[in-house]
């Protein structure tokens, strides 16, 4: 029983990650507005802005949610909070999938 519980938890975590994966094609359609600062190819056009190409998918989702919820308050939050506020959770996952698959 002691082995079964951690195994079950691990399997649930793994299956949750697989379900949470976004649709890169849908993300590409939403990414046009991101290109103004993060570049059409995910490489930042403005110094000090992060490159999104190849970034970890989960990190992008958590960062967007933090901007949307007002949990990030740095200099870029003034730009990112209104952008993130327009995104649904599915939009965030799709954008993250799109940028994560870039080289």
Automatic annotation (TrEMBL):
The keyword Transferase does not apply. PROSITE patterns: CYTC. The keyword Ligase does not apply. Residues 1-20 form the signal peptide. Keywords: Electron transport, Heme, Iron, Metal-binding, Signal, Transport. Residues 22-103 form the Cytochrome c domain. InterPro entries: Cyt_c-like_dom, Cyt_c-like_dom_sf, Cytochrome_c_Oxidase_Subunit. PANTHER family: CBB3-TYPE CYTOCHROME C OXIDASE SUBUNIT FIXP, CYTOCHROME C4. This is C-type cytochrome. It comes from Enterovibrio qingdaonensis.
């Amino acid at each position: 029983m002691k082995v079964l519980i951690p195994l079950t938890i691990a399997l649930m975590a793994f299956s949750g990650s697989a379900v949470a994966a976004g649709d890169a094609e849908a993300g590409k359609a939403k990414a046009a507005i991101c290109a103004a600062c993060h570049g059409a190819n995910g490489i930042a056009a403005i110094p000090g802005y992060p490159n999104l190409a190849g970034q970890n998918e989960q990190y992008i989702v958590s960062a967007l949610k933090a901007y949307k919820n007002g949990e990030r308050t740095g200099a870029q939050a003034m730009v990112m909070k209104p952008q993130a506020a327009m995104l649904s959770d599915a939009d965030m996952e799709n954008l993250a999938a799109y940028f994560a698959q870039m080289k």
